[in-house]
Fold each of these.
Amino acid sequence: MRDILAAEVKRLANTVIWSWEGFRAAWATEKTLRQWTVANALAAVLAFSLDLAAAERGLVLALGLLILAAELINTAVEEVVDHLSPGLDPRAKKAKDCGSACVALTAIAAGVAWVVVLVG
Ligand SMILES: Nc1ncnc2c1ncn2[C@@H]1O[C@H](COP(=O)(O)OP(=O)(O)OP(=O)(O)O)[C@@H](O)[C@H]1O
């Protein structure tokens, strides 16, 4: 039992370490990730400055974080596509455009949430 617990703790610790390494690697190369992170920080300041209900605040903050998650997935797709398909290919284009659309949709969702929270 103790061994299983130790293995699970090690697995969890590795997951945290590798996730952090992934974020740092994307941060180093992806300007859009850095821009969205700054936008998230500003949005968080705004969310805590305004007189919002807890659910409203939670919604806009969570959707902001979702944009960062989408941006990381998009980066992962781009890396894999560039590795496997250095030349032009319609499937590479489709994969990259879908990743881009994923980020755009999460950004629209966050924007819609902000408009609804602020305007009603
Ligand atoms: N190998 C390829 N084959 C065909 N089209 C490609 C290929 N690589 C990129 N493209 C096209 O060029 C666009 C931009 O690709 P690029 O790799 O420059 O992404 P990016 O500018 O870093 O995108 P993002 O702003 O989402 O990070 C893609 O969305 C796709 O339409």
Amino acid sequence: MTLPTPEAHVRDVTEVVERRSAGESEFLQAVREVLDTLAPVLAEHPEFIEGGILERLVEPERQYIFRVPWTDDQNRVQVNRGIRVQFNSALGPYKGGLRFHPSVNLSVIKFLGFEQIFKNALTSQRIGGGKGGSDFDPTGKSDAEVMRFCQSFMTELVHHIGEHTDIPAGDIGVGAREIGFMFGQYRRITQRYEAGVLTGKGVGWGGAEVRTEATGYGAVFFAEEMLARASQGIEGYRAVVSGSGNVATYAIEKVEQLGGKAITASDSSGYIVDEAGIDLDLLKQVKGVERARISEYAERRPGSHYVAGGSVWDVPAELAFPCATQNELTGAHARTLISNGVRAVTEGANMPTTPDAVEAFQGAGVLFAPGKAANAGGVATSALEMSQNAARSRWDRDKSESRLHGIMRDVHEATYDASERYGKPGDYVLGANSAAFVRVAQAMLEQGVI
Ligand SMILES: NC(=O)c1ccc[n+]([C@@H]2O[C@H](COP(=O)([O-])OP(=O)(O)OC[C@H]3O[C@@H](n4cnc5c(N)ncnc54)[C@H](O)[C@@H]3O)[C@@H](O)[C@H]2O)c1
């Protein structure tokens, strides 16, 4: 059999995905971003072409779409759509978060599930990739409404998940409160205390220490490693951070612990600038406890100010951490950051940087860390939560954080080494994609055509 060249093979597979998933713009963006970097790997491993690895990798193993009916506080019937995409289980059971946000659709969940395969491979934790969610909007809903929604969502999802098959966690709009409601319903329906079926649980009932902080902390650990390679550090640098949710909050906390100064946070309405450094207690109170708008922060904190609309990327800093949502940092934003002297951009969110912005950073010699490597600390700690659940044990904070730190160092090293091996040292996009792909492809090859 004559094999196509790696470049022709990538082109052929991309065309098939574009035809089969026409209109799924986020998913197509994520697929192209990975496939475009893989030709050098395929040149070294023709058996991956022969084994049809790419063709299989871009098609989810299984997808569920279901109705989620619930009643609001006025007793009106509401209906949302639930989705779970089980993308690839070559390395272990499907693992990936649930997102509750009005923008959720199949394309968004497939892009996140596809990214998750590679991210999970980079953690070395033996977990496959999946993702799910709903177009339910938790904003402005009462706790009781959120509970009824979560219970209805789980009443269907229960048929598809389990500690050895598929283990969801949180993402945008899904935090400890939602995981609690869903775990309660799972336990009630199955009559089993299967702690390892969901991660991000409360620490008093099976959750892991440092899971809440892990994605944000991990992103900063990754930035620290990347800067250290370039003989720099976090200390003394200013950081612009977008978002004010789970990832952003703990990225800010770790930047400050390491001697840097985080000066911004945002939500979908606008952003705040606090030149003295973000007051974390106030940020957690406003966004985490009160679930209020970010403008509240500026009202209560002298010396800070709020900008309606606009973008945190207009604020000069050496470090940037996009931690809100996909495609939030565009080519124009990248050019502003570059002209303001940014040194390193680390993705806390999934695919927050558009392809032209990534190209601009790489062209200008700015260190750029893709989310599938830099934000892997969250899912890695979720895997540690699963191990503790299986062993019925509980680690303290120090052990949990030091394991996270070690994993992020390993992810950085594997990513950097792969960038060197495939000819572009310091290209972390190439490094993350190729290191992860080889691990998944090898496992798929050894497990036969399934
Ligand atoms: N939670 C995790 O462990 C984890 C792990 C890896 C990656 N991520 C990614 O990190 C990002 C943030 O997730 P999170 O868990 O912090 O969620 P969250 O719900 O705690 O916070 C989301 C943040 O993004 C902002 N946001 C959402 N949509 C927006 C929009 N359209 N415009 C501007 N801002 C918007 C929200 O205001 C909020 O500040 C997502 O891309 C998510 O996929 C999360």
